């Protein structure tokens, strides 16, 4: 017989157990819901864009839309051909890659293989700062410095051209490519390197013949992601590429001083003034779908490559069971094909050179290339190594010079405008005079709202991914969703926010529409950094907690999350920095060029990047205030990035498991 | 020591620090030509570190500082103008974990001759075949030279790595616990191979396995806490150790 006392104790514990169980379950479901947010958003984007794009195809067929050379939706006979815009996008991206790929890969190799710890700890943050500069600030720099310099130096009628866009996009893509390529190089097992060095290979031979080939697929993925970054960029290209109204295909194709119009720029310029539900409106959504498809393809292929890479490194040595992939060509035939294609390619390159310059110039280039290769073959390995390392070091110097020039111009131009009045007064005379107080407050409102929405969802999603599921189909789908969201061009978020929040939910151009749109954008950043932070907490800590009878949520909240907090905070700050610098998503969802501070969530709002954009493109005579706004924005965003970097580095050094 | 042992390499008063921690303390040790020298001792005694000094692989570790000499054919390999790449060509190395490159079997062997300037395809073919034969793996791989080396078994990978080390025609081959990741059958094959290789090469092996040292080596060095406790003929070390520490270790009283 149990005593009464005993029974009551039992019932208390059992009801406690029930409550515990319910609590555990509900937390799990809550986290699961936040983890699928990214996918829901992706699908909503597709659905909302399609809904508004499909009516277009009542009037044009897909072929005319893609292959038609002229874009003139407002003409007497409206034309909806996007071919020139596609070519514009591709040419600008191609030019950007010509600049970014060698510099990025060179510096990635330098950082991971050659630089000492000290130099590395200086270069890496510098390149990350390059990633932190808001695109509207790049655009502003391009507009006042770069295009002017191009016009004068190359004696052109205008500097607003393909090459200006390529240079800016190239610089902007450098951090993306460098960081992914560096990860790929670091992932090459250390023993490959030792094996090569032990055979008497120089460091450069080891890098070029063993490390780089092993990292090749990762480097490819890095390049693909860089292309994605360049294709999706709006503000910078919109401000420096000239934007001929009907689109323009350079004639000849390599005339880099032609003004071009890209897909993103078309959306950025025309979406604001289009008649609602007109054919033009539907056509713009068609462009958005096109853009989204391109970036989807790009991001999915990068993800597939990186996934395969991960499996390869895990399974190496024991992949006997793996099916032998049948090769389409045997080695011999491959060699033969290469030997035929090679001279053809060389002839083609010569022809292009001849067309671009003239016979003498071509001869000079060819002879110098031959001389250089000859000289390179002549010298011994150790000198070759010096030459190669010098080249890699030069890549770093060029990148740092870019950073230095941009920072120098923004700071030296803007410093004169800074004053207490500038920061605290309202703008007057259309922004030519007065301050930027409402824009600062607007930015703070937008960012605060965005992070308040994105942080719980992002952390919840990451917690679910790392702590509640095994790696499998579900996590893969969720991660792919987050990756796709991360790669979606910011202007597409803008259109989605417009169609979904402004129109469908009836928010109108408002603070809240802007906050939610920005939140969608930064969720992937927070998921990724939180995931990394959680994964860095050793499994033994969780086991220790479980072994004491703790539930999963108790373990997570008391044991796992506290040491992961610095990582989460870093992610949050990076998200804030990104949100504070974005312009394109706000163009049609929240932005108003006004001096009024919003009184409610449903009022439109000004922000620093938008203010800068309007001043520098539409308000002549506002030079001083443009420069001041750019500087304030730069300080705000880079300040946030610096804090994030410092927190991360501090904890990376002090945390030792 | 009997006079038929020619000195190939000699470690003289070697000290090594990782940052502030001293990993090797005043080690003196000879390496005799065409003999197998085994270095044994408990984990962390510095035996691998000592081995990695012999081809200066420790150079690639940050904050690693070396004092003293290692003399190879009467030249100090740690002297300032000694060419480290030349050294590593003469002193080959086989690592604890088989580490073939993620290339084909053929390319793994051809790698070193190529980087050292051999371009002739026929000559390369000959080198590849000879090295694979010398490492007794030729018959197992001759019909799949173009396939990835990653598809081989652990033991085959390790013999491939030995073949790769032979491709630079070294004088000395260093082996850093070459069998610790292998099963007993693969281990036996590698040990047989070592006995054959030693006719043409000088071998230094670090091993955790005392039976292996007793089975294959001519000379044995026993290290403890960074110091060389005893060096002598293998037979003498195992049957009649002079030092008490050595005796304790080989009789399994600690280690």
Order of helices and strands of chain A: HHEEHHHHHHHHHHHHHHEEHHHHHHHH
Percent of residues in beta strands of chain A = under 5%
For the record, what is the CATH homologous superfamily label of chain B? P-loop containing nucleotide triphosphate hydrolases
Distance between the termini of chain A: 51 Å
What would CATH call the homologous superfamily of the largest domain in chain A? MetI-like
What's the tally of helices of chain A?
24
Biggest chain pair contact, residues each? A-B, 27 and 34 residues
Which class of secondary structure composition applies to the elements of chain A? mainly alpha
**CATH class division of chain B:** Alpha Beta
What is the helix/strand order of chain B? EEEHEEHEHHHHEHEHEEHH
Walk me through the structure.
The complex is a heterodimer of chains A (657) and B (255). Chain A is mainly α and 657 residues long. Chain A has two domains: 60-313, MetI-like (MetI-like fold); 416-657, MetI-like fold (Orthogonal Bundle). Chain A contains 24 helices and four strands. In chain A, the strands form two sheets. A two-stranded antiparallel sheet of chain A has the order 1-2. In chain A, strands 3-4 form a two-stranded antiparallel ribbon. In chain A, strand 3 (427-428) and strand 4 form a beta hairpin. In chain A, helix 3 (83-114) crosses helix 15. Chain A is globular, with a radius of gyration of 27 Å. Chain A starts with a helix and ends with a helix. In chain A, 47% of the residues are buried. The model of chain A is unreliable at 315-326 (pLDDT under 50). In chain B, helix 3 packs across helix 4 and helix 4 (121-134) packs across helix 6. Chain B has a six-stranded mixed beta sheet, with helices on both faces. Chain B is globular and about 55 Å long. In chain B, strand 9 (219-224) and strand 10 (227-233) form a beta hairpin. Chain B contains ten helices and ten strands. Chain B is an alpha/beta fold and 255 residues long. Chain B has one domain (7-250): Rossmann fold. The mean pLDDT of chain B is 89. Classes of the chains: A mainly alpha (657), B alpha/beta (255).
């Amino acid at each position: 017989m149990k005593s009464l006392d005993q029974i009551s104790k039992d019932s208390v514990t059992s009801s406690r157990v029930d409550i515990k169980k319910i609590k555990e379950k509900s937390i799990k479901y809550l986290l699961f819901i936040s983890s699928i947010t990214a996918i829901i958003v992706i699908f909503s984007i597709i659905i909302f864009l399609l809904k508004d794009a499909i009516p277009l195809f009542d009037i044009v067929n897909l072929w005319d839309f893609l292959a038609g050379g002229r874009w003139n939706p407002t003409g007497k006979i409206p034309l909806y051909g996007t071919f020139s815009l596609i070519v514009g996008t591709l040419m600008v991206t191609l030019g950007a890659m010509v600049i970014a790929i060698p510099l990025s890969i060179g510096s990635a190799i330098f950082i991971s293989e050659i630089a000492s710890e000290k130099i590395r700890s200086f270069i890496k943050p510098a390149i990350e700062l390059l990633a932190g500069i808001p695109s509207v600030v790049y655009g502003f720099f391009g507009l006042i410095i770069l295009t002017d310099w191009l016009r004068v130096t190359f004696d052109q009628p205008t500097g607003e051209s393909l090459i200006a866009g390529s240079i800016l996009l190239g610089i902007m893509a450098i951090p993306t490519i460098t960081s992914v390529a560096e990860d790929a190089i670091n992932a090459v097992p250390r023993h490959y390197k030792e094996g090569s060095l032990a055979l008497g290979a120089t460091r450069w031979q080891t890098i070029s013949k063993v490390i780089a080939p092993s990292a090749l697929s990762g480097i490819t993925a890095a390049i693909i992601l860089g292309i994605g970054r360049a294709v999706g960029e709006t503000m910078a290209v919109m401000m420096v590429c000239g934007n001929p109204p009907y689109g323009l295909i350079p004639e000849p194709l390599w005339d880099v001083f032609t003004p071009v119009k890209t897909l993103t720029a078309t959306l950025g310029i025309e979406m604001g003034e289009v008649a609602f539900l007109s054919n033009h409106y539907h056509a713009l959504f068609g462009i958005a779908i096109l853009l989204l498809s391109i970036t989807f393809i790009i991001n999915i292929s990068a993800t597939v490559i990186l996934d395969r890479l991960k499996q390869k490194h895990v399974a190496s040595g024991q992949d006997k069971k793996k099916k032998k992939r049948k090769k389409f060509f045997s080695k011999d035939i491959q060699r033969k094909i290469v030997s035929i294609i090679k001279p053809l390619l060389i002839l083609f390159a010569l022809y292009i050179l001849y067309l671009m310059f003239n016979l003498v110039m071509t001869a000079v280039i060819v002879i110098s290339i031959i001389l250089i290769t000859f000289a390179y073959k002549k010298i011994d390995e150790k000198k070759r190594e010096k030459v190669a390392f010098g080249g890699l070091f030069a890549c770093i110097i060029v990148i740092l010079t870019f950073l230095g020039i941009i920072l120098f111009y923004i700071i030296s131009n803007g410093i004169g405008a800074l004053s207490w009045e500038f920061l605290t007064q309202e703008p007057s005379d259309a922004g030519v005079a007065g301050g930027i107080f409402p824009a600062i407050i607007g930015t703070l409102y937008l960012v605060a709202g965005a992070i308040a929405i994105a942080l719980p969802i992002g952390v919840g999603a990451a917690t679910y991914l790392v702590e509640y599921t095994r790696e499998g189909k579900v996590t893969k789908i969720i991660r792919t969703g987050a990756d796709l969201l991360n790669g979606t061009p910011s202007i597409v978020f803008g259109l989605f926010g417009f169609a979904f929040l402004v129109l469908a939910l009836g928010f109108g151009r408002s603070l809240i529409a802007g906050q939610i749109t920005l939140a969608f954008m930064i969720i992937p950043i927070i998921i990724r950094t939180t995931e990394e932070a959680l994964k860095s907490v050793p499994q033994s800590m969780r086991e220790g907690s479980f072994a004491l009878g703790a539930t999963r949520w108790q373990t997570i909240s008391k044991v796992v999350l506290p040491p992961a907090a610095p990582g989460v905070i870093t992610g949050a700050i990076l998200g804030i920095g990104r949100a504070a610098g974005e312009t394109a998503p706000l163009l049609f969802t929240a932005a108003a060029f006004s001096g009024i501070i919003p009184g409610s969530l449903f009022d439109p709002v000004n922000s620093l990047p938008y203010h800068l954009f309007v001043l520098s493109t539409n308000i002549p005579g506002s030079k001083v205030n443009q420069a001041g706004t750019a500087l304030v924005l730069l300080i705000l965003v880079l300040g946030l990035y610096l804090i994030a970097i410092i927190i991360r580095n501090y904890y990376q050094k002090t945390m030792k498991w | 020591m009997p006079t038929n042992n020619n000195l190939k390499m000699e470690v003289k008063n070697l000290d090594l620090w990782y940052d502030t921690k001293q990993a090797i303390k005043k080690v003196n040790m000879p390496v005799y030509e065409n003999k197998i020298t085994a270095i044994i001792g408990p984990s962390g005694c510095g035996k691998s570190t000592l081995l990695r000094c012999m081809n200066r692989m420790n150079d690639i570790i940050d904050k690693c500082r070396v004092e003293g000499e290692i003399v190879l054919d009467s030249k100090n390999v740690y002297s300032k103008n000694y060419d480290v790449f030349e050294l590593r060509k003469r002193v080959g190395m086989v690592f604890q974990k088989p580490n073939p490159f993620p290339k084909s079997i053929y390319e793994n062997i051809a790698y070193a001759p190529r980087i050292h300037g051999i371009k002739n395809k026929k000559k390369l073919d000959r080198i590849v075949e000879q090295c694979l034969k010398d490492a007794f793996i030729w018959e197992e791989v001759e019909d799949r030279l173009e396939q990835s080396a990653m598809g081989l078994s652990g033991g085959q990978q390790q013999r491939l790595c030995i073949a790769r080390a032979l491709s630079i025609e070294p004088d000395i081959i260093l082996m850093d616990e070459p069998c610790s990741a292998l099963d007993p059958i693969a281990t036996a094959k590698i040990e047989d191979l070592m006995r054959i290789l030693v006719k043409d090469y000088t071998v230094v092996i670090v091993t955790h396995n005392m039976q292996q040292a007793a089975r294959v080596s001519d000379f044995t060095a026993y290290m403890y806490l960074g110091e060389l406790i005893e060096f002598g003929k293998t037979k003498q070390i195992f049957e009649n150790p002079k030092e008490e520490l050595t005796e304790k270790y080989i009789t399994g009283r600690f280690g």
